[in-house]
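Weekly modeling sync, notes
Attendees: AB, CL, MP (scribe)

Item 1: holo prediction request
CL wants a bound-state model with D-mannose before deciding which constructs to order. AB pointed out that an apo prediction alone won't tell us much about the pocket. Agreed to run with the ligand included and paste results into these notes for async review.

Input as submitted:
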Amino acid sequence: MEKTWRWFGKKDTITLDMLRQIGVEGIVTALHEVPNGEVWSLEAIQDLKQYIELAGLRWSVVESLPVSESIKYGGKDREQLIQNYKISLANLGKAGIKTVCYNFMPVIDWIRTDLARKNEDGTYTLYFDKIRFAYFDCFILKRKGAEKDYSPEEMQQVYALDKTITQAEKDDLIYTIIVKTQGFINGNIKEGDQNPVAIFNRLLSLYDGIDKMQLRENFKYFLEQVIPVAEEYGVNLCVHPDDPPFAVLGLPRIVTSAEDIEWLLKAVDIPNNGLTFCAGSLSSGLHNDVPELAKRFAKRTHFVHLRSTDVYANGDFIEAPHTAGRGHLVELIRIFEKENPGLPMRVDHGKLMLDDVNKSYNPGYSFLGRMYALAQVDGMMAAN
Ligand code: DNO
């Protein structure tokens, strides 16, 4: 597999020179400064590409070319936005960047409740606490009917939490779930936005009445228009699974399981319509057998995220070491090398450790933790 690394552009304090020293071969990045929905010009793409190449690396994958909210819920301006998407795709193809990752998650991308849960060994990791998430849903967003999405036992714990939770903890939950994890990946809410809860609730309301069937219809509509352009320019589009892979906050999620993946690949059944195989996201759904999914979908996979999770009986999940957990990375590497050799792969979400603890890296994207994970994965590849 090609060893790639998610790099956040020229402002990233992790420099391309550092990445060369640790054996990275390809860069995964985006034009983060272009607002969602606007065209990525050929000039801007070529400028960044050249910058990467001057450092002795290559721009292997775009992550992400964001799909505007209105395309997902079917808003009035979706035609224009799809048009812009097609132009960006064509420009990427012209510049020779042939793998483009995106996602189709309504309103919110990846979800965690805790960005620095302390491990026994003194490192820190990302964590999803179901009760705290339910608290955010029922008591902070105050979403109508939210209680129905949780069991009576879970709701008892949510009420108990309400008696003890501090204002600082509430603020931290808001900041973690809808600001800090979203802003740096061109999400809907970013640092400095006033009243994020109100913005978030407004966004949720755009999906009133949109169920899984309707979201699928909108997804298919998008694919039918963009995939022919991808095909024409030799670009492989690859959708990232929903993280976590289940419905949240009353929103449908549509890339969660074998059945969903089968559906989306058939929706436009040509190789340019493919999958980003995020072992971490898929592994946090107990319904998923990750190596089975890899075997089944390897041929339509264009990009791989190697990370792993453990899921607890109470519905919480934690990022597992890259050598352990439900991701089964050793086996996945074996499957991908056999079925679809040479795929770009990046390690995802390293733990926060050592000197990095006091640096302000994007959550999940510190340097040492990812370097450690890359070394582990490198070893797995060598031994395979
Ligand atoms: C979080 C990532 C996601 C992912 C995007 C892809 O760390 O896994 O933000 O990159 O959803 O579109």
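Recorded for review: The pocket of D-mannose is lined by residues 63-64, 101-103, 109-110, 185, 240, 243, 348, 364 (CB under 6 Å).
Action items: CL to compare against the apo run; MP to circulate these notes.
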